[in-house]
Specification:
single chain, 183 residues, 4-stranded antiparallel sheet
């Protein structure tokens, strides 16, 4: 599969998982560490709209705000730094992530909205974890009044405000819960 080149001023779904679906976040400290590195490596290169970190994969929605080559190298540096730290911590060698980070350009607002929902509901979908209180997702940060590097206002505008943002997430979550009951 040929990887799509990143372009400045465009939105992307960036995601990857552990090699062979293996764990990449062994603890909550690992998730916190990844988020701290995310800020260090990507600040002033991308705008982050949403994220979710789960034990064996992650999702990000970003807007590229620098030269594409700089953004691509920054992502590579982030993932390499994280992989080296985990390999050292876990006394392992070799690749942590699947070969290359995946990226899909988000070409319209509806797709962007649906992807934000999908990413925020990932804890429920994969692990039956309450998405509203899941600490390693951007959902609680978007609803918080605490300072954040997230593009909180941009996301809330996509959903016509905070109340509708919550409502749409809760409705989509009910659909997922209903599906679980039917299976």
């Amino acid at each position: 599969m040929k990887l799509e080149a990143l372009e400045q001023e465009k939105y992307y779904h960036i995601y990857n998982r552990g090699i062979n679906g293996n764990t990449i976040f062994f603890s909550n400290d690992n998730k916190s560490y990844f988020l701290s590195k995310l800020k260090i490596y990507l600040e002033n290169k991308v705008e982050i709209l949403a994220y979710c970190l789960l034990s064996n994969h992650f999702h990000l929605i970003v807007k590229i705000i620098t030269k594409p080559s700089i953004a691509t190298q920054s992502f590579s540096n982030l993932f390499n730094a994280y992989a080296k730290a985990i390999n050292k911590q876990q006394k392992r060698t070799g690749s942590l992530f699947e070969k290359h980070f995946k990226r899909i350009e988000l070409k319209n607002e509806k797709y962007l909205q649906n992807l934000i929902l999908y990413i925020h509901l990932n804890p429920m979908k994969h692990f039956n974890i309450d998405f509203e209180s899941y600490k390693y997702s951007s959902y609680p940060s978007i609803l918080s009044d605490k300072p954040t590097t997230l593009k909180r206002n941009d996301v809330l505008q996509l959903f016509d405000g905070k109340e509708n943002f919550k409502y749409v997430h809760q409705q989509k979550n009910l659909e997922i819960e209903e599906k679980f009951k039917l299976e």
